[in-house]
Specification:
heterotrimer, A alpha+beta (458), B mainly alpha (313), C mainly alpha (299), A: 458 residues, alpha+beta, D-Maltodextrin-Binding Protein, domain 2, 2 domains, 15% strand, C: 299 residues, MetI-like fold, globular, disordered N terminus
Chain lengths: 458, 313, 299
Amino acid sequence: MSSRFPAQGVPAVSDPVRRIGRRRLLRHAMAGAGALLAAGPLSGCASPASASGANSLSVWDLFQGGDGTLMDDMIEAVSKGAGGAEGFEIDRTILDWGPSYYTKLAMSAAGGRASDVAAMHLSRLAGYAPGGLVDAFDLDLLAEYGVGQKDFTPAVWSRTQHEGTVYAIPLDVHPFIVFYDKKAAEKAGLLDSSGALAPMGSPEALLEAGKALAEATGQAGILFGHVTDPAQNWRLFAALYAQTGAEFSLPDGGPAEIDIDAAVRAVTFMTQLFDGRTNPNNLDYYGSVAAFTSGRGGMAMLGEWELPALKEFDIDLGAAPFPQVFDKPAVYTDSHSLVLPHQDSPDPARRREAHRYVAAILKQSLTWASAGHIPAYQPVLAKPEYAALDPQSSYADAAKVAVLDPPNWFTGAGSNFQNRMCQPLQSALLGNTTPEKAVRQMVREADTLLRQPNPVTS
Amino acid sequence: MTTTAPPGAEEQTDAPAADAGGRRTAARRIPTGNGIVFVLPFLLVFGLFMVWPIVQGLWMSFTDSSLALRDTNFVGLDNYTEAFGDPDVWSSLGNTVFFTVISSVPLVLVALAMALLVHSGLAGQWAWRLSFFAPYLLPVTVVTMIWTWLYQPELGMANQLLDTLGMEPVGWLSDESVAMWSVAALTVWWTVGFNFLLYLAALQSLPTTFDEAAALDGAGAWRRLWSITLPQLRRTTGLVAMLQILASLKVFDQIYILTKGGPNGSTRPVLEYVYDVGFTGYRLGYASAVSYLFFALVVLISLVQFRLFRRED
Amino acid sequence: MSATATPLRARRRPPREAAGSPLLLGHGRLPRALAGTALVVLAVVWLVPFLWAVVTSVQSEEDINTTGLWPFKGAFTLDAYQQILERGNVSVWAFNSFLIAGLVTLITVVVSTLAAYGFSRGTFRGRRALLAVTVAAIMVPPQLLVVPLFEQMLLFNLVDTYAAVILPQVVAPMMVFILKRFFDAVPKELEEAARIDGASEFRVFASIVLPLSRPIVAAVSIFVFIGAWNNFMWPFIVTNDPDLMTLPVGLATVKDAYGIEYAQSMASALLAALPLIVVFLFFQRRIVNSVATTGLGGS
């Protein structure tokens, strides 16, 4: 979930992660030319990465912007041997967030020469683990480096497995939350005695809050950017739908099990909330962020990963878990995790290093938390340094009521599924269709996807 | 392309070979006698990387072959049935045809105009050639990087220019009704140089006698262009158009990098859909079926062109 | 087809400046001025994107983001270029591009030239049928075969290797066809003399036919090299390891931790554009003539 803002920071050229390039070029040139001369092109030269020492790990991720630079910092820390541990030589590759990344990840795993470690949204695991595109973690090995099941919340840990085997180690939980302008919220009377956003408890309360915020800012109340966005509408819908207590499940072959009444209730509320008067209904993602950062709205519904970008601006920034308006608390989230992409013949020493690296990165997750993410590794969450992070600590509880995408091979972050769910929701919000029709369209889309033969299980 | 072969080529080549065969009995017989050895390396790579994938792809289109699973089942015509009922197949085919039309027409006409202008003999030949042909030498990513920046909503040149002229900014890549035109403009800029060179080469090899005679008869420049030069270029135009249509039909690179098929699938060509369902969606078998449907379209268009081209002769 | 009919030095070379026919425009001033204006306008339109890229690449990200580019007022800086070169990725990809395009060209030209000669002079059975299949294959866009080709590379265990990038690119029926047409037009008397002297077919090919074919082989090489250098779809599909990517694939796939940076983006685009532009400047006449040499541009 990279921030969608162009980074503001000045690139540091001396960064060790970046300097790897030149070493890599030489190593690569030698390995490439040598292999070609020795074996001829027909024999297929193995990736030069595998020709280098077991100590050098290739890692893939999709973090750019604020997340990208923080990941650089974390890799630099573990490379130098944080906490007196042995260091690493890390060869980091960043690919474009979304389908590009997940396609390349699957293709490299199918080819058998994938990177040693890769980042993956937990919501995508169902598309990778069953087909063997990711390899299982050795929990004993991880335990040697001080990481185990006990370090994660059950809600998150339960999504790391396929048929009882662990394929992913969660790095964070990153909920879809609300950011608010503390001054506007105070003026609107929405803060409790401790100065935090008071609970809502009902749809009416959130509608009222929008009106009060609109009055306080003199412009819009609550901001939500969704036009042409492939995920935002789904995030909001999934949170509200889960709050009704209904289940959304996608059994292979279909039909999708969706509570139509609950879904209509959620979509109807979305259209009431973003009525185009109190709260605009026609913003795109950038538009909503820009409106919020320039004070043209009191509250914005966004992913917490926007925190570093929002902090650049001169607003008294508050944050809270997505407010409960229906029967039970639920917050739409996803979770960045680390996986071992499938390799045909993994070198045991490198695999061991990969486990050691995963453990070492988890222990750096306080750095990661400054991007807004809630560390999944509980020992870091328990640290006083984390409690001191503001406003991060104010939405840490969101992890306890986390709702992820319904698991199936085609769902998850950056998936076609989310994009398809967003289209009818967008139409409903723009007033081009009714909530009932939008929900029926969503069900049809889900059924179409479910009718496709499942390509990850035989 | 067969039409461009000199009609007498076959007979010509056979005659000396038979001739040689007669004398070879006297000379030392050599193992390479009938020339097949020369063709073998090509046949090897042709068989491996052309025939094999064609056959393999056809087979895969009848299976549920998956990127994520190694076991594959025969599913009969399921993939084709699904593809015929898949609105995304039709919309991506439509996008491909639309792109082919709006890119091929200017790619032929602009190239012709450039070649005629450069051929008119103005000074600085190398500079014109460089300006028009240089973009063709750029890797596709370089082209898309430059144009993404030109099309950038706030800071890009296109909208800055509109702003200077007091006009509203345009969502070059984000507006569904504009995006494909933006892709076509980029494509014209990028690849027109090749067609331009084809035309220029043709113009330079035209016999000038008619032109000179007409000029002596006092025919004006326009008159000679319309009634002498352009008719002389008909064959070249047929060839350029045919190569261009084939090239435009297989568009993928610039669109994939520029828009990933968006916004909302409005620029997604069929080859990107093949990539999306086959690799992103793992369904190699289904993607093969979509490829073969597209293949049928390409063959159809080729045959029609072939017919037209032949009639032109 | 005049170009192929006269493969030897006999080809008429247009004189340098009067490359076109001045008669076309007559001697009137007005048509000349109009043509000149149109040409200048077109050339400017074609060069502006380059200029915009160059100007962007020598600005700082801050200047671009705060003031924009228009009108040009930011301070000149080469920071973007320095950062790109420091990172080294672009040099790795350039190395791969040269290696891959070079090997593709070498193998393609050798294989295609031999095949074309075999098709032109051979007497083996099935020659016509094979030739017909080869010519028909010109109509098969290789992009249609990416799915089965990838499957094939999975089977050969070649995904993420140079071999996988190179091998499928060496099948060039079009080049075989162009070369065959050229060989067909080469007079056979010279070869006959050598054959009577007892030279092997290969010797005849290497010492008599090949030297005559230099211009067409050069032309085909140039085409194949440009094609391989700029090829995107196949290398993009078959390489995932950034160390094996070519320039276009690497630039399109691998991102930077800092997100979008316009100056750096333009700097790396221009660096990646440089090699072939320089080659073009040196070999301009040859590249332009090569289009004619292949016979594609003939009328």
